User: What shape does this take?
Amino acid sequence: MANPRGELPAWVDIGLIPLLNLLVALVFAGLVVLIIGENPLDAMWIMLKGAVGSLKGWGYLLYYATNFVFTGLAVAVAFHAGLFNIGGEGQAYFAGLGAGIVGLGLEFLPWPIVIPLAILASVLFGAFWAWIPGYLQAKRGSHIVITTIMFNFIAASLMVYLINYWFRPVGKMAVESREITGAYILSFREIARLFFDARLPSTPLNLTVFLAIIAAFIVWYLLWRTKLGYEIRAVGANTEAAIYAGIKPQRIVIIAMAISGALSGLVAVNEVLGVQHRLLLDFVGGAGFVGIAVALMGRSHPVGIVFAAMLFGLLYQGGAELSFARPLISRDMIVVIQGLVILFMGALEYAFRPTLAAIFVKAED
Assistant: This one.
C-alpha cells in the first residue's frame, strides 16, 4: 500500500535511526581515541567491562541512569506540550531544598514517616520551581527557554546561601547540611546488611531506581491513556487546532511545566535522600542538561528514555573506568565522547532520515 505522506515506519523512526546515529557517533569517538594513540576497540572493551562486567559497575550505571530517566522524562513531557524546559538543574536543586527542609525539620519523627514526606516535598518543590516559568509563559508571554535557564542560576545561588547560612552546622567547614536521619534506609547496601545480613559492593544505587521505573510508566500512561495527556500532545502538535477543539493552551502549559518540574525534582530523592543523605552543593551534577539528550535520543517516549538513560549511564561509569585504566584518555576526553553521542543523537538526528525515507517510501509504493 502506498504511503502518500512519506512517513517512516515506527520501527525505523524509533529504532533504526537512533541506532545508526549511535554507531556513527561511536565511529567518530573511536577516531578521537585513535588520534591520541589508543586502540579504540580496547577502549570500548574497557568501558563495557567497567560498566556491565561486575555488580559494582551495574550499580553505578543504574545510579546514573536513574537521574537521567527523571530528567529525560521531565524534558519529554515539556516537549510534548511544545515547550523546551532546560531548567531541570534548577528544579532538581530547589527540590533538594524541599527534601532537606522536611528531612531535617522533622527528624524527630520515625523514618517511615519522614522519608515519604521528604519525597513528596521534593516533588512539590520541583513542580513549583517549574510552575513559575510555565505561568510566566502562559500569562505574560515570557519565553520558557529564557526563564527556565535563568531559574537555574537563581536556584544555584539560593542553595549556596541557604546551605552556608542556614543548613551548615556551626563549626563545620564543608558546605553541607547535617545528615538526614533515616535516609540511609534507601541504600541497597544498607538494606542487604540490615535485613538479609548480606554484603553488596559499595555503590550509590538505592531504592530510587524503582521510583524511576514507576515514573516512566506513569508518564506513558498520562500521555497516551488520559484526557490530560491527549490535551498536552494536542497543544504541542498544533495549538490552533487544540483551541478549536476546546482545549485551553495556557492551562496546559502551566500543568505540563509543573509535571516536568516534579519529575526533575525526583533527582533530589536519588541524590539527597538516596546517596548523600544530606543537602550539599552541586548534587545535581549536570543531570538536568543530560536529560535533554536523553529525551532526544529516546524520541520523548518513556521506553526510549529508559534505554537512552542506561546508555548514558554506561558512558559515565564506563568512561570513569576507562580514564583510570588508560591515563591518556582523560576525563575530558570522555566528555568529548559523550558530546559526540549527544551531537549525533540530537543535532544530527535527521542526517539519515531523508535517505531512509526515500528507500522505505519507494519500497512501499
